[in-house]
């Protein structure tokens, strides 16, 4: 699974009789940020203050990520991080939902409501696969002095979980409060946001103007940009709460739309 697949799987609260997606209004843009984070980890892109820079156009394994890389390369002028995330397609949650269905990570039932809109009833989630992702997220939340450093991929995932408000689906209720606080503390510190990786590279000047490879993942830049977008109710389409008119997600048949 890609980071986006993992993020959506975590967003499906599995501690209920009928699973539902948490924080839909934020998830779409967080999925787009996950794609950028993964391409950055693969050494294909880097962020500057003004634009997303293509470092290496070579294909990656996942077709969806390849399409994102091609889209970045075709955009003229090169897009800024803010604009790329702001213009995330409305259909992105649906695309990732279908990916998880194809991978048999979840099962759903599609139906039409009284208004003729398509609704998705989530029937089941692959708990074994979800718990595997959760174990890696726990490793980030519990990381610190005396523990092995968390993988950069997992740090980026943890940052997105926090900023997109998915943590209550991962660590629900009163029992999960301590874990939510640990995750927030670890992903808000410089040591977590500057997780090292040889693959990622910030934009800098080297020979002939080529980007200089560094050893950090700019998860902090993604987190800040997401926070700004979530706080801005004028980012288009009458605010983030209205980005999901293409379909609804219900809790196994209640017929309600969950925000």
Structure description:
With 259 residues, this protein is mainly α. Helices cover 44% and strands 11% of the residues. It is built from 11 helices and 7 strands. The chain has helices at 3-11, 24-41, 63-74, 81-86, 92-102, 127-141, 152-163, 167-170, 177-187, 190-193, 219-231, and strands spanning 12-13, 20-21, 45-47, 52-54, 106-112, 118-125, 248-250. A 3-stranded mixed sheet has the order 5-6-7, with helices on one face. Strands 1-2 form a two-stranded antiparallel ribbon. It has a two-stranded antiparallel ribbon with strand order 3-4. Helix 6 packs across helix 7, helix 7 crosses helix 9 (177-187) and helix 7 packs parallel to helix 11. It is globular, with a radius of gyration of 18 Å. The relative contact order is 0.20. Mean pLDDT is 79; it is low at 190-216, 233-247 and 249-259.
Task: Draw up the topology in text.
Blueprint: H1 3-11, E1 12-13, E2 20-21, H2 24-41, E3 45-47, E4 52-54, H3 63-74, H4 81-86, H5 92-102, E5 106-112, E6 118-125, H6 127-141, H7 152-163, H8 167-170, H9 177-187, H10 190-193, H11 219-231, E7 248-250
Parallel strand pairs: 6-7
Antiparallel strand pairs: 1-2, 3-4, 5-6
Q: Which terms would index this structure?
A:
three-stranded mixed β-sheet, mainly alpha, disordered C terminus, 7 strands, 259 residues
Give the CA-CA distance, first to last residue.
25 Å
Inertia-based shape: globular
Tally of contiguous helical segments: 11
- Mean pLDDT across the residues is 79
Largest sheet: 3 strands, mixed
The number of distinct β-strands equals 7
The poorly predicted ranges are 190-216, 233-247, 249-259
């Amino acid at each position: 699974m890609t980071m986006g697949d993992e993020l959506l799987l975590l967003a499906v609260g599995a501690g209920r009789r009928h699973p539902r997606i948490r924080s839909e209004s934020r998830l779409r843009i967080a999925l787009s940020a996950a794609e950028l984070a993964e391409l950055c980890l693969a050494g294909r892109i880097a962020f500057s203050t003004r634009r997303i820079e293509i470092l290496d156009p070579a294909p990656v394994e996942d077709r969806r990520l390849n399409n994102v890389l091609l889209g970045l390369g075709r955009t003229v002028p090169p897009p800024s991080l803010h604009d790329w995330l702001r213009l995330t397609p409305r259909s992105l949650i649906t695309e990732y939902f279908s990916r998880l269905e194809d991978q048999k990570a979840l099962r759903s039932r599609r139906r039409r409501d009284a208004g003729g809109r398509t609704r998705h009833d989530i029937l089941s989630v692959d708990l074994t696969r979800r718990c595997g992702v959760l174990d890696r997220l726990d490793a980030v939340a519990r990381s610190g002095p005396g523990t092995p450093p968390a993988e950069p991929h997992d740090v980026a995932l943890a940052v997105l979980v926090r900023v997109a408000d998915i943590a209550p689906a991962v660590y629900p209720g009163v029992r999960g409060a301590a874990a939510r606080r640990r995750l927030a503390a670890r992903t808000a510190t410089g040591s977590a946001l500057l997780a090292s990786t040889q693959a990622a590279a910030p934009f800098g000047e080297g020979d002939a103007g080529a980007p200089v490879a560094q050893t950090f993942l700019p998860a902090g830049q993604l987190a800040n940009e997401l926070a700004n977008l979530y706080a801005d109710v004028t980012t288009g389409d009458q605010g983030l709460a209205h980005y999901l008119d293409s379909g609804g997600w219900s809790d196994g048949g209640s017929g309600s739309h969950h925000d």
